[in-house]
Design goal:
Number of domains: 2
Radius of gyration: 23 Å
Structural class: alpha/beta
Largest sheet: 8 strands, parallel, barrel
Distance between the termini: 41 Å
Helix content: 25-40%
Number of helices: 11
Strand content: 15-25%
CATH topology of the largest domain: TIM Barrel
CATH architecture of the largest domain: Alpha-Beta Barrel
CATH class of the largest domain: Alpha Beta
CATH superfamily of the largest domain: Aldolase class I
Shape: globular
């Protein structure tokens, strides 16, 4: 049985470090152009070359997003762009456009090409044609069921890898191809500038009654008619593997480093536990499932994997985000019976903290004794990025995150 790849988002250097520390097999990131996430900082040429070197030293692959739909005035810039990232040593280009695919094969022939979910691949004929055109991997449309993915796997060459999103935000439009943002605020979602109008609140207006609008009520909070739930497949690892999915992709290049750390860690741990004794009856340990609820998230669903989510797809209240935990500090070292930390949020002496180490079940402990680096006891930690220490016998690796339930 193959071991599925855990593929994590890396919107900038901080998110990259989080993904690396918490167990990603590969990361996907954007350069300074042609990327579907323009909001994150992304990577300059020098930063990407450094990132590739760092990832390769850890045995982690780097996939570069070149997945916008470029216009005429943009595509002339692409050949030099591809040559630059070929020289940087990236392990794959993620593309959505056939013209971009052809330029990849011409100007960076050594770099494998992955076909983005935006290409809308929903059948094995299309998958085979992309393979014939030189693609080494496809990212299926998110609208496919596991049964449909399994059929694509059965009717395509084994050399063609299949990558699927298993966690994160869902899009109301087919395979992410949407004009709503462009139409409403002149920000092109197909060129990385989506304003997420699907998350906005809408109402009906009667044309002959100017200024009179009618909320679309589903509950007392109103209805956000396009606001989809997030996907979470952490409890369905055997089904994903049995469908023949080679790479488990986590959405979230625009999300926080904390999100990248926690969700990467959860899927890393789930895959590792499954691979110890693969079985259709495998149950993801509860502590791993609970980790997916310790980030900022919308209500979860399983997307289209088990059929049309007609009754369980939308969120009716504003934004839809839920957050039960905050990061209080990051561990720098443990020495002499103390945990040395850098503060992230204010907390108090006696607070119960949740310590998350890579690949381990979180440990709960109380911060009964807190000191500054001069040995003065503290009652609270009011200053961001303050260095301090907690008296404890716990041995935690540097980079461990200390969290507190809200």
């Amino acid at each position: 049985m193959f071991r599925p790849e855990v593929l994590s988002p890396a919107g900038d250097k901080e998110r990259l470090q989080a993904a690396l520390m918490f167990g990603a097999d590969a990361v996907y990131l954007g350069g300074d152009a042609f990327t579907m996430r323009a909001a994150p900082q992304n990577f300059t040429a020098d930063a990407l070359a450094e990132a590739v070197e760092q990832c390769h030293a850890k045995g982690v692959k780097v996939y570069l997003t070149v997945n916008t739909l470029p216009r005429n005035d943009e595509i002339v810039l692409l050949p030099s762009y591809l040559e630059k990232w070929d020289e940087a040593g990236v392990d794959g280009f993620i593309v959505a456009d056939i013209g971009v695919l052809s330029l990849c094969k011409k100007y960076a022939p050594r770099v494998p090409v992955h076909i983005s979910t935006q290409a809308g691949i929903v059948n094995y004929v299309t998958a085979n044609e992309f393979y014939n055109m030189g693609a080494s991997r496809i990212v299926t449309a998110r609208e496919l069921s596991l049964t449909e993915i399994a059929e694509i796997r059965a009717k395509t060459p084994k050399e063609l890898e299949i990558e699927c999103f298993v966690h994160g935000a869902m899009c109301v439009s087919f395979s992410g191809r949407c004009l709503l943002s462009n139409y409403l605020v002149n920000r092109d979602a197909n060129r990385g500038e989506c304003a997420q109008p699907c998350r906005w609140e809408y109402a009906l207006m009667e044309v002959k009654r100017d200024g009179m609008y009618f909320p679309i009520n589903d509950s007392k909070e109103g209805t956000y008619i396009l606001n989809s739930k997030d996907m979470c497949m952490i409890e369905h690892i055997p089904d994903l593997v049995n469908a023949g999915i080679n790479s488990f992709k986590i959405e979230g290049r625009a999300k926080s480093a904390y999100y990248a750390a926690v969700i990467t860690n959860a899927y890393r741990a789930a895959v590792d536990e499954f691979m110890k004794k693969p079985s259709p009856d495998f149950k993801t340990p509860q502590w791993i499932v609970e980790e997916c609820y310790k980030v900022s998230y919308r209500d979860y669903c399983t997307g289209f994997y088990y059929g049309q989510p007609n009754e369980n797809a939308q969120i009716s209240f504003e934004g839809g985000y839920i957050r039960h935990y905050d990061v209080m500090a990051e561990v720098t070292k443990c020495e002499g019976g103390y945990i040395f930390c850098i503060q992230r949020n204010k907390f108090y002496k006696g607070d119960e903290l949740d310590a998350l180490e890579p690949g381990k079940k979180p440990q709960i402990f109380k911060a009964d004794e807190i000191y500054d680096l001069d040995g003065n006891e503290l009652l609270d930690l009011p200053h961001p990025m303050m260095q301090f220490k907690i008296k404890s016998d716990l041995e935690l690796v540097p980079g461990t995150l200390l969290r507190k339930a809200k």
